[in-house]
Amino acid sequence: MRGTRLAISASLLTVSFALAAPAFAQEAAQDAAQDKAAEAPVDAREIVVTGSLIQRPNNTAVSPIVSVGEAALKETGQVNLQDALNQFPSFTTAGNANTGGQGTGGRASINLHGLGTNRNLVLLDGKRLPLSDINGNVDINILPESIMGGVDVITGGASAIYGSDAISGVVNFKTLRAFDGVRLDAQNSISERGDGYKFNGSLAFGTGFAEDRGHVIAAFSYAQQDAVNGSSRDFFFDKTPSSFIGTGTFVPSATNAPTVDAVSGVFSGYGVGGLPNNVNLLNLGFNNDGTLFTQTGARNYKGANGTNGYLVVGNNVRMPVGQQIDFANALKRKTAFLKADYDLTPSLTAYGQFMYVDLSVHTASGGSLTQFGTLTTVPVTNPFIPDDLKTILASRPNPNAPFTWNGRYVGVPYKNWDENYVVEQYMAGLKGDIASGWSFDLFASYDQSVHDQQLNDAVIKGRVQTLLNAADGGASICAGGFNPFGDANARSLSDACVNYITKTAFSKEKLAQTQAQLQVNGKLFDLGAGPAQIALVAGYRKNTYSYVPDSDLAAQNIEAVIASQPASGRISVKEFAAQVDIPLLADKPFVRELGIGGAIRHSDYSVTGGVTSYEVDARWRPVDALLFRGSYQRAVRAPNIGELFSPQTGTQLVIGTPPGALGDPCDVRSNARTGADGAKVAELCVAQGIPQAAISSYTFPTTATGQLVSGNTNLTPERADTFNVGFVLNSPFESGPLADFTLSVDYYNIAVKNVISTVPGLTVLSKCFNLDGSNPTYDKNNLYCGLLVRDNSGQLTTVATPYLNLGAVKTDGVEAQVNWTVPARFLGDESGRFFVNSAVGWLHKYKLQLLPGAAYLDYTGISNGAAGVSSLPPRATPKWKAVTSFGYRSDAATLGLRWRYQSKMEDTTSVLTPATAQVGVPAYALWDMFGSVRIAKTFEIRAGVNNLFDKGLPFVASSQNGTDVALYDPIGRSFYLGAKVSF
Predict the structure, then answer these.
(1) Distance (Å, rounded) from C-alpha 532 to C-alpha 579?
(2) For the residues of 667-733, what is the DSSP string, one character each?
(3) Computed from CA positions of residues 82, 85, 90, 93, in that sequence, does the dihedral angle turn out positive or negative?
């Protein structure tokens, strides 16, 4: 009986052990008092195991399942579920409160095995959740944490069971089935530095009615997280050193450049000599006294250095963006959840569910700059032009031509977004018995997610140009006009002019999902080991999407934000599935249990047609304490609405600054230009539009450029082969030091072909400029070169990255979980125990094929800090990842430590440009402390310290801001205190 009781939980013997041992362990501490009860016959009701449509009486799962208990989630001290889950080896950090920006902040997504957030399926009580974006991601911020009973995670393909998207696995969040009473829970946390405040409070109540024929549960919660700005952490002081600076700079045109003599003469008047021969092509900045300085070399620079946002980096004048951005987004979340059921007859139950979420997120990404789209220009008639610049302008071949300027709008508040997500879901269903051994479950649901995006302090290009063109500098339009020449002038912009050149831009997107499903379960025959069972499913699902951007956003009339176009789309699917489970032998020598199973699902998509997925599995328990299990699945993922219908939508592509990063390969500092084929690269750059006169001094002014993502209705479904095999060992001893020992080990192997993905932007640059041998003739008509767009001055403005069926990805590894507790009654409490619990993941390989037929690139043990939340490869693929907790617990109290570990990684440049690979990331480990005290049966206090030793951020070369704030802890040591009251 003991082995059967632990069969499913031994997959991790609940993740609560590894994450916060007290949760499950506290229950285990009470097992001694319940051992006699455990020997009695179990409840005859059969239980549906996550990962199966079949009801089984013994909870045996053939797929590796990680289960996280309710108390375990609380013990992490995290406000958001994804931050708790991301500590485990199966998960790769994706979207969380520290990701997003530029209008995409606040979404919390899940990424299993680094295969992308859209390749795992997220469920609530076994049913699909509302989608949060056009790419099919689910924002788990919407979940009702106050009545969360736990989480089951299948770490392997499950398309045959649950349908499309379940290539890498399934995450099933489970609400409490029923409870009577009221529970209140509240938690506060704050960093040692007094910022990073978080609060989470909830109220839930449940009751039965009509002589317990009906049950109702209602839950309400509120969560808040304060923003944290980069200026509050020394690490970000010099990160992302942008050349768009508040002083403004004159950008000479290579085809209408001033003379060297004119520039040298002006600087000679300052007493500055020794200028380079191409000084006439260097950007010139403006000191507050009207004099000029060279931005490169900082000659005659009289401004701030280390203060006021400025920093001289490598003898170049910069404004590090790391000091400006919020690396932790502000968040407020309100949720309401209601579910009820009522027994219409002893064999027929009606049920319903309602969910409402109101989530507001604030993101800030620094000052607006003069980037993207048609750049603004300054006519020579502008009255604010400094005299020394007038002298230089007059030396140009066409002295009356307008000139281009670069700058950062320091007189305008940082551009920032207020985003509001309102999610509603309505569900109703009937379930009951059909005949002896046969049952059904029929439900229908509708949900919608409305995302209102508000871009505040958006600088409108057209209005800036109007002020620049005005004969009086715009003074007749708004008080004082617009003077961009010098930091002091730029910061003194009047409120009237700020209001004139800025606006609040409103955009809206809406997603809706309608679904209906009928499931029938029944028993077929009995071979003597238990009844063979079958589950039949028929379902229909429709998803719609619409997006209406602000008119100025669509017209690329907003500074520093890539244009987005209106979009709409619709996709539907009809599905039919069947699963069988056949027990073959039971209670025989060396065969306590032997069974096989299988499943098949056919899905008919409105756009891409029909696909079929299938699964076979087997389980063998030679003795009560040992279970072997394995399965093979052909999983399928059809393209989602975004991949099919998305118009060209703008986002930011981080390319870095050469030579420390790839950057623009045409940049004179890049390894492409300084390498053996630098002359050929230069010729290609000129062919793309960089003026011949500028090529010898061309530099790209910042660390990011525009990226255009677009859908493709010719996409075909992905197909994956997934395989897993493993064992679960429960201690065979009833007493002694090993009586409470459990070990599970599982091997997984996932190979995805026909991968749907955008072409990685850095790959486009590498292939166009032959950094990987893809364009040996440096042909401007190369496929990848055709995806690059440059403006009239040669600056790289956008990289097109359309969705395509690209190559493949394959990964495999081993995940092990262990739990061990020993009595500690000598401390005076009969229920006291010491515990050690650990979850360990070993990644054997993670390989990516970018194009069909191309060689696989080995991304095992690679840091890819520039990756998006669903990118392939992901932001990190460490070979080893572990979370271990140990300590003491009893019925009355818990005290423990948790160790989180990630092995060292090489930088992504070691794969893309191995000859010039950047520094990798060292091994990273954090320690946490947690504890709880139970006062009577109704009141519990919990507290803890996260990042106990105040571990600092590691440097991530491939990240724009020098680290990865989603993956590593940017807050530092923090404290939390929470309490729960039940009555």
Answers:
(1) 11
(2) STTSHHHHSTTHHHHHHHHHHHT--TTTTTT----SSEEEEEE---TT---EEEEEEEEEEEEE---
(3) positive
Question: Smallest Cα–Cα separation from 542: which of 507, 514, 511?
Answer: 514
Q: Round the CA-based radius of gyration of the chain to a whole number and report it.
A: 31
Encoded tokens for 378: 């300054």
pLDDT average, residue stretch 212-231: 93
CA distance 635 to 161: 10
Q: Which residues pair with 251 in a beta bridge?
A: 404
Q: Residue written as tokens 């309490």?
A: 979
- Report how far Cα 877 is from the mean position of its chain's Cα atoms: 14
Alpha-carbon distance of 218 to 324, in angstroms, equals: 42
- Let me know: does 196 contact 294? Beta carbons within 8 Å: no
CA 53 remoteness from chain centre: 30
Phi, psi of 211 (to 5 degrees): 55, 40
3-state secondary structure of 37: helix
**Which of 150-159, 883-892, 951-960 has the least mean pLDDT?**
150-159
Which residue's entry shows tokens 């998305």? 646
Q: Is the peptide bond before 549 cis (omega within 30 degrees of 0)?
A: no
CA distances for 100 relative to 266, 862, 899, angstroms: 45, 22, 28
- Residues 6 or more apart in contact with residue 141 via CB below 8 angstroms: 80, 106, 107, 108, 331, 333, 357, 359, 421
Q: In which element (H, E) is residue 477 found?
A: none
Reported pTM: 0.86
Two tokens, residue 908: 């992504």
3-state helix, strand, coil in the chain (%, to 5): 15, 45, 40
pLDDT digits 0-9 by tens, 721-774:
999 999 999 999 988 889 999 999 999 999 999 999 888 888 899 889 998 888
> Considering Cα of 73, then 75, then 80, then 83, what sign does the dihedral take?
negative
